[in-house]
Amino acid sequence: MIAVEHDPGSDWTEPGVFRVLPGVYRIPLPLPQDGLRAVNVYAIEHEGGLVLVDGGWAVEQARDRLQHMLAALGSGLGDVSRFLVTHVHRDHYTQAVTLRREFGGRVSLGRGEEPSLRAAADPTRRRWGAHVDRLRGCGASPVVERLLAAYPDEGADVSVWEAPDDWIDDGSDIVLETRTLRALSTPGHTRGHLVFVDREAGAVFAGDHVLPHITPSIAFEAEPPELPLRGYLESLRLMRTLPDMLLLPAHGPVADSVHARVDELLAHHDARLEAAAGTVEAGATTAYEAGRMLTWTRRNRVFDDLDPFNQMLAVLETAVHLDLLCAQGRLRSSAADGVTQYAPG
N or C end of the chain: smaller count of CB under 10 Å? Predict the structure, then answer.
């Protein structure tokens, strides 16, 4: 039998059931072949059953882990009555869908995710969808070649992309037996990302919006909006208008202060905007060229040391910074042969 423990605050990926609030438990689920290693789902006791914030990735290891850990709470997979999913990415949404098929739980998702979910469920979609086109528009054809060599652009598995039972609107209250959660729209990581705020408990189920140790990717989704970085920064500032609360993230340990991490993320993106502008001033003309001049991750790795998937994320991340600089009037852009070119403003 797995014991229910207070959150140790050490290795956050360690398997277990960790009490983070009265009636709320953090359960890390594995992410096979993913550098993040785990995703936190949060089980909330409710009317003799459970509500889960996020569902995990629909792989056998995650399903087995979740079943094993829920047993420590005296529950099973069939006792989950509802999934409140912060966003549509595979590691948050797909296991909720597969468990719904088997046990009938209700799946809820932010309304802003509808365009990306519709695109993900398109049976004609290729594995990399529009990402390859965006990379080519960034002048990153070498990255496309490396990406497709490593991960063939076969037909995508659309079996796990089904509509939720209901769409959650910004500002909606989810009233549970023991608490009320306010859903707030926080676009940026995805266009329909939500956080769930428990004001009475002083905690935010933050999904990937605010992560304690890493910065979330911006607009890596099937249908990104225009200027997603601007939306993300506005969403971070929204969190700063709320009272400071306990941070319950999807990746990483629980942290005492949402505000402290928001301030760090805002400072990080200010620095990245300056660095991105500096690459154009130094002669970079495309997002690919600029991305190659920047360093990546907390270890300041050079671009060529990244694997093809993370090179893709780096180029797309660079592009959203350059596009925001253009919107701010600090740079200007034009198109040549389908490639966006940047120049000092």
Answer: N
